[in-house]
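Good morning N.,

You mentioned wanting to compare the apo and holo forms, so I went ahead and generated the holo version with adenosine-5'-triphosphate. This is what I fed in:
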Amino acid sequence: MEHLRRSKVADLLQSKERGSEVLVKGWVRTKRGNKNVNFIALNDGSVIHHIQVVAEVAKFDEELLKKITTGSAIAVEGTLVESMGQGQNVEIQARKIELFGTADPETYPLQKKGHTLEFLREIAHLRPRTNTFGAVLRIRHAMAFAIHKYFNDHGFFYIHSPIVTGSDAEGAGAMFRVTTLDPLHPPLTPEGKVNYTEDFFGKETSLTVSGQLEAELAALSLSLVYTFGPTFRAENSNTPRHLAEFWMIEPEMAFYDIHDNMDLAEDFLKSLMQYALDHCMDDLEFLNKMYDNELIDRLQQVIGSKFERLTYTEAIEILKASGQSWEFPVDWGSDLQAEHERYLVEKHFHCPVILTNYPRDIKAFYMKQNDDNKTVRGMDVLFPRIGEIIGGSQREEDYDSLLRRIREMNIPEKDVWWYLDTRRFGTAPHSGFGLGFERLILFVTGMSNIRDVIPFPRTPKNAEF
Ligand code: ATP
Ligand code: MN
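and this is what came out, ligand included:
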C-alpha cells in the first residue's frame, strides 16, 4: 500500500473525482452487511462524517473481515466511486484492507452507540472516538485558531505569561502550591513554620490564576498584547461552569478606556461566533441536532445583536423589581450569581449584557476607581446559558490610588513592587479582560457541562486521565 498517499476522509467526501485509486486510514464506526458484501463506516477524525467502504466478501480473507469490528483501526485501498446508498456521494470499493488494531466487541466500551455524557466522562481516554467529542474537539481547535487569528489581524502580540508564579496578589481564587519540599519533613524556620527559602524557587510559589498582571507589563510597552494559556483555581466549586484547570485568553491594551474595552470584547466574541459558523458548520449541525436545537440560531442572534450595556447598580434595580424569587439574595454590594446574570440576559434583555461599575469591595485591587469612591471600572460580559463569559476592567494607572488600594486590601507590597513600578515609570491608561476558553466552547458547542468541552477535565477529586 505504500505507493498511494493517504487521503483524508474529509477531502474524499468533497472530491469530484470518480474511479481514482485511494488509500484511507481510520477507525471503524460500524460494520454491517450479509454473506456477500460488508459495509464499513470509516472515520478518521478529519470530519464528522464517515466514508462507506464496500468489501465484497469473496475478495477477502474471511478471518480478516471477521476481526474488523467497531473500534478497529484499518487501512483501505480501493476505488472511489459514486455511492448508490443514501446520505453519501461517494464510497470506496475496497481492494485491499490492512488491519492495524482490533477492538474486542466483548470489552470495547464504545461498541454500542448512545452512551450518556456522564458515562463518557468515566472513559475520557476513549471518548474522542465518539461523534460528539470529535465535533467538540474540532470546534475547540477552530476557536483557538480563530482567537490567534483575530489578535494577529488586529495587531496584538502573543505574550507567554508564566504558569508558575511567585505572587498570589491577583486574588482571583485559591491557588495550587508548587513545591519540591519533602511533605513529611519540610525544613522549618526557628519559629516552626515551613522555610520556603529552601524551596526550589527560594520562596512560596503556585500555579497561576491569571496572566493579567504580566500581560499589563507587556502592554505598557507593546501596546496591544494577549495571553492564552492554562490557569488554575483550587476552589471546591463543583458546578457545570467551573474547572480547576482551564484556559484563559487575556488581551491587555494600552490607551484603552473601559468603553474601548467593551467594544473590543463585543467585536471579538462576535467574530469568534462568525468563524464557527463559517468553518465548523458540519459539527455545529450535528450538535444542533443531537443536543441543542437552538444552537445555530443562538450563535446567529448573538452576532446580530447589540450587547446591552448598563451599570451594576442599574442591574440590581432590575433584579429587585423583577418579582423573581432567588436562591441568593440581591443586594447592592454583593456579587451577582449565575441565576441573576442569566435572568438579565435570558429573561430581561434577550441579548448579551455588559455590566460595568461594580462595587469596589467585590472586585480586585487593580481596577480603576471611580470618583464616587464606591465603584470601580470593572466590566463583565454575560451570555445566555453561561452567565459570566468575560471579566475585565480598566486598570488603575495612578500610582497613589493603586498603592492606597493595595494597602487597604492588605496585599504585601513586597509581592507587587514590580507591578507598582509600571505606575512609577511611564504609566498610561490601559484596560483588558479575561475570556474563559471553556465557557466560550460551552456556548459555541451548546454542551451544558464544562467537563465535556475540555479533553481531560480537572475538577475536585478528579484527575484520573
Ligand atoms: P465566576 O464568577 O464565574 O466564578 P470569576 O469572576 O471568578 O468567575 P474571573 O476571575 O473574572 O472569573 O476570570 C475571567 C473568566 O475566566 C471568567 O469570566 C470565566 O469566563 C472564566 N473562568 C473563571 N473561573 C473559571 C473556572 N473555574 N473554570 C472555567 N472558567 C472560569
Ligand atoms: Mn469575573
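The first helix runs from residue 9 to 14.

Happy to go through it together on a call whenever suits you.

Best,
F.
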